[in-house]
Amino acid sequence: MQRLKTFFSDIFREMRKVSWPKRKELTRYTITVFSTVAFFSLFFAVLDLGISKLIRLILE
What we know:
Layout: H1 2-17, H2 23-59
């Protein structure tokens, strides 16, 4: 039981050392992630559509 208490105490101590992002940084990172995901989703959707049409043309 003492080891478990020490373990969680160490976790708590380490979490206090973490440098959490400020609100402005977090907003910027979130926008970056969403825009990157949207871009790649659109890119791969267009690529998939193009490959599908190419395969249909070849098979017909």
